[in-house]
Specification:
Blueprint (H helix, E strand, L loop, with lengths): L14 H13 L7 H46 L8 H8 L3 H10 L2 H9 L5 H8 L1 H9 L13
Helix pairs in contact: 2-3, 2-7, 3-4, 6-7
């Protein structure tokens, strides 16, 4: 029966680990690599790949949080200014310097239409919006390097 690459298991070990085993083998030709040593290299490789994936997901969450806080600060500027203007998605995106689709997702996810009506009727404040909708984003923003200069204060 002809064997193909599917009939083999490929294990990755670090170059340093391989050179260490090769050095031992050159000293003593009867040197054997234990199964544990081979498996340890594979487990370390898998852990490294999982950590890479987790870090990428965390970076994406922080990037989204930074965009959300930019939009919040723009809303704060609009609603606290002397000349109050009507806000729409494109104006919000332009003033916050984020992509239109990002502003649109924010508008839909956070039910901004409802919040703006509540704020205009004085049933709620922008601070309530921050606490209810953006607490997690503010915490991520404060923990990121982007938030070092201007941290968002949330008082419950």
């Amino acid at each position: 029966m002809k064997k193909s690459y599917k009939d083999y298991v490929y294990l990755k070990i670090s170059k340093e680990e391989f050179e260490k085993h090769l050095k031992e083998y050159k000293k003593d030709k009867s040197y054997k690599i234990s199964f544990y040593d081979i498996l340890k290299g594979r487990v370390e490789y898998e852990n490294e790949m999982l950590n890479k994936k987790d870090k990428a997901l965390e970076a994406a969450r922080i990037k989204k949080a930074v965009a959300n806080i930019k939009i919040y600060k723009t809303l704060e500027r609009f609603l606290n200014s002397l000349f109050k203007r009507d806000i729409n998605i494109s104006l919000l995106a332009k003033e916050a310097k984020v992509h239109y689709n990002t502003a649109k997702k924010f508008w839909i996810e956070k039910n901004l239409d409802i919040w703006l009506e509540k704020i205009k009727k004085d049933e709620a404040t922008l601070r309530d919006f921050l606490i209810e909708e953006l607490t997690e984003d503010a915490l991520l923003y404060n923990s990121s390097k982007a938030g070092e200069k201007n941290k968002i204060k949330i008082l419950m």
